[in-house]
């Protein structure tokens, strides 16, 4: 099993816009459930109570590295990723074997 964790820092300085962008990311990524090869897709939005925290996290599992690769090139994921790139300032990612 491969765990794929991605965090994003959103670009918007305005709290309302940041909340809207975070909701857009969450909706798009959770919409991939049952569409892509993921065993699990969970998206969390930071509570906003600690300065310096990243804003959004994707925590997902894939049965194999091939499934993760298929997810990353799936047209529905690419569409979600295009929106995400348009609203983020920075991204970090870790993939590891469970």
Automatic annotation (TrEMBL):
Stress-response A/B barrel domain sequence ranges: 2-96
InterPro entries associated with the record: Dabb, Dimeric_a/b-barrel
Domain of life: Bacteria
PROSITE patterns, alphabetized: S_R_A_B_BARREL
Name of the featured protein: Dabb family protein
The organism of origin for this protein: Protaetiibacter intestinalis
Species classification: Bacteria, Bacillati, Actinomycetota, Actinomycetes, Micrococcales
